[in-house]
Design brief:
50% of the residues lie in helices and 0% in strands. With 145 residues, the protein is an all-alpha fold. The structure holds heme C.
Length: 145
């Protein structure tokens, strides 16, 4: 990386090239993150929230209250996606009875960082944050007016 930087500093046109490359791959990266989130959603959430996230998964019949329609999160929050609120619901800090307890969420340990000082610094914790971020990116991408 340092090597690249020196090159860039010495040669202005290369800097433009590097910036140009960054821009063209940005969209692809966004799509990767969203695709990752979609996969996680199908695996951990669709049984209740439905494969289109509209709240009508196979388990929804037997649940009370019914699973939320997750394509309406923004619409229910005056048009802006409630990122952190949804984050806390997924990682269990805001309790949703149907999601199970924080210690035993229905979707397992994949979105949970144990509450102790050691755990928040671990590689696992970073992976958990990455998964939640991907899920939220996916949910944000499917919001409907
Ligand atoms: C066992 C069924 C079940 C599973 C699995 C499940 N949910 Fe839920 N979820 C519910 C129910 C039921 C509600 C509605 C609770 C209520 O209205 O009080 C809900 C509510 C929510 C809400 C709050 C919506 C709002 O309008 O405030 C979010 C966000 C959410 N779920 C995200 C997820 C995500 C992301 C996953 C997968 C990681 C997931 N849920 C997995 C049953 C489930």
């Amino acid at each position: 990386m340092n090597h690249l930087l020196t090159l860039v500093l010495r040669n202005g046109s290369l800097a433009l090239l590097v910036i140009g490359m960054g821009m063209s791959s940005g969209w692809a990266q966004e799509q990767d993150v969203i695709a990752g989130g979609k996969q996680l959603f199908q695996k951990f959430c669709a049984s209740c929230h439905g494969s289109q996230a509209r709240g009508n998964g196979p388990l929804s019949e037997s649940l009370k209250p019914k699973p939320a329609n997750l394509t309406r999160l923004s619409a229910n929050h005056r048009g802006s996606f409630p990122f952190w609120q949804a984050y806390r619901m997924i990682d269990g800090r805001d309790h949703i009875p149907s999601h199970g307890t924080r210690d035993m969420p229905v979707f397992g340990i994949w979105f949970r960082i144990p509450d102790d000082e050691v755990s928040i610094e671990t590689e696992w914790a970073d992976q958990v944050r990455g998964r939640i971020w991907q899920l939220l990116s996916y949910l944000e991408s499917i919001q409907e007016p």
